[in-house]
Amino acid sequence: MRACGNVYLIGAGPGDPELLTLKALRMLKSADVVVYDRLVSDEIMAFCPERAELIAVGKSPDCHPVPQDQINKVLLEQALKGRTVARLKGGDPMIFGRGSEEMLELSLHGVSVEICPGITAAQGAVASAGIALTHRGLASGVRYVTGHRAKNNPLDLDWEGMADPETTLVVYMGVANIALIAERLIAAGLEVGLPVMVVSNATKPDEATLLSNLYQIGVQVRAAKLSGPTLFIIGRVVSLHAELRQILRNPAVLPETEQALA
């Protein structure tokens, strides 16, 4: 009887293959089978060993061809065959990736699980846009929230707690509900003109960005018809994007000491 295999929960990052960590690459190359999500880019899938079996279990909005309990079953079955399983997820497996559910299920059956964190979409998006999630004088904290509930249940977020101008809000999976989210944040006290950046397909060649504010974001996103995974960055740090562009266009706006360093 073969010994029980093991499972690597690997964060593939937001899409750019150069953002894959060395640890993730090592784990991936050791795999006998790769169980992967829809958001893992083709460039990263190209790193999978030729010998490895590839099993797609991806989900898209309102379309879950492989339910989570079935994904758990696939991982368990493969590990119990004595195989090394790479569970490859977009972003970070423990940030809206349901990695903890898979880890708990496997651990209950005595399967060894190792987690490899990945660069989450928020980090990739702000790096591409040239802004920060925190910035002295603009934001002293950051908060990640989901803009979607399982089975399309109503959003029951902490609106009052989220309406903090000193905190940058990052909304994942929020395209369908962004108008409602903006409305509730305004009702909780945030300014209608608070800037919002929308990033679709962050770090990929087809990345697209949209600058807006809380008052207009719902209408503009609906008109934009964005495709691909989309992230919303809400807060004063978004103003850094325009400031950076102004500096790049006209270095004379820099203070003398900064010009000397530029």
Structure overview:
The chain is an alpha/beta fold and 262 residues long. It folds into 2 domains: 6-116, Tetrapyrrole methylase, N-terminal domain (Cobalt-precorrin-4 Transmethylase, domain 1, 3-Layer(aba) Sandwich); 121-245, Methyltransferase, Cobalt-precorrin-4 Transmethylase, Domain 2 (2-Layer Sandwich). Helix content is 32%, strand content 21%. It starts with 5 loop residues before the first strand and ends with a helix.
> How are the strands ordered across the major sheet?
3-2-4-1-5
- Give the total of domains: 2
Helix and strand content put the structural class at alpha/beta
Order of helices and strands: EHEHEHEHEHEHEHEEHEHH
Chain oligomer state: single chain
Give the overall shape, derived from the CA principal axes.
globular
Residue share in β-strands: 15-25%
The biggest sheet, with number of strands, parallel, antiparallel or mixed sense and barrel status, is: 5 strands, parallel
pLDDT average, as an integer? 90
Reading off the top of the CATH hierarchy, the class of the largest domain is best stated as Alpha Beta
- Please name the fourth-level CATH homologous superfamily of the largest domain: Tetrapyrrole methylase, C-terminal domain
Global Rg: 21 Å
Strand segment tally: 10
CATH topology tier name of the largest domain? Methyltransferase, Cobalt-precorrin-4 Transmethylase, Domain 2
Question: What descriptive keywords fit this protein?
Answer:
single chain, 262 residues, alpha/beta, Cobalt-precorrin-4 Transmethylase, domain 1, Methyltransferase, Cobalt-precorrin-4 Transmethylase, Domain 2, 2 domains, 5-stranded parallel beta sheet, 10 strands, disordered C terminus
